[in-house]
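User: structure tokens for this one?
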Amino acid sequence: MKKLTIIALAVAAASGSVQAAKVYQDEKHSVDLYGRVYAGYTVGDDEGKSDNFGSDQYVRLGAKVKSKIDDVSYAVGRYELQLESNHEGDEASKTKTRLAYAGFGGNYGEFTFGRNYGALELIADWTDSSYVNPYGNSALGISSSREEGIGRSGNVLKYTGEFSGLDVHVSYKFNDNEKEDGVSQDNSAYGIALAYTFDFGFGIGGGYNVANNADGIDDSKMAIFGVNYDANGVYAAANYATGTNNKGFKQHHADSQGDHTGYEAVVGYKFTKNFRAQAMWNKAELEPNNGTKFDKVDYYTIEGRYDLTKQLRIVAAYQMNQIDDAKDEFHFAARYDF
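Assistant:
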């Protein structure tokens, strides 16, 4: 007789699980739901010079479904939505789809298509470990490069595989831009990343991504290299990225044509079962073709995290900004995961 399991989300949360709550499972199918509630606030420059000042609040909900195809293969689908509520008034809330993909996999790896992370995220994740929402993942050019198949992008065909400590991620983003005035706006991209983790907790990896730009504009290119260590209560990682014509920095400069170099590093320690702390560094150097080299991102953070339960944590971070005329900031938040 088929075994059927239905577990209420409230029961799953009370059990202490911080993983996805399994709401349905039988011999061939499973449905997992997960989510996060984040309520934070940044104390700092309130004169319009800081992008972080004020409230930082969002709710994230996700679902992952998996069905058995045969003894080797399975089908998979995932959807993740985020609702942000950072301001008062009619425009207070903004909803965005973070992930939406489907595919199949097995002991040979997993193939998916849809809105997903590009291959380089495999390495970038190592330093994207801030306890709070505003900081970290600022200098490599990963998070803001949606059009280049590096961060989360739509129409991504992706392969992921893990083989005895070796992780392989390959992604291809299909062109989804139409011509404007007869000029091609092709934004297709491809990337690959490899990482190897040794038994004693040390990992090393690298990746490369190329994205097409409009006719007459050079391709965007990015390379990333990183190392990390995770064992005995210690977590440490460092990433280095270098590239050219990266659109992720276009919002920071009138001309995105040029070179960039990014550095990110983190070191942390878990002092007790409930308390841990870490320090982070993010620095991005831009050298536009029509200008001089300058630092766009340069800050340190000291962060603390206290887990009241396996679901609820209190987090805080102090940012020391090294950019001229930029003020330091303090951020605190409560975060609930299920």
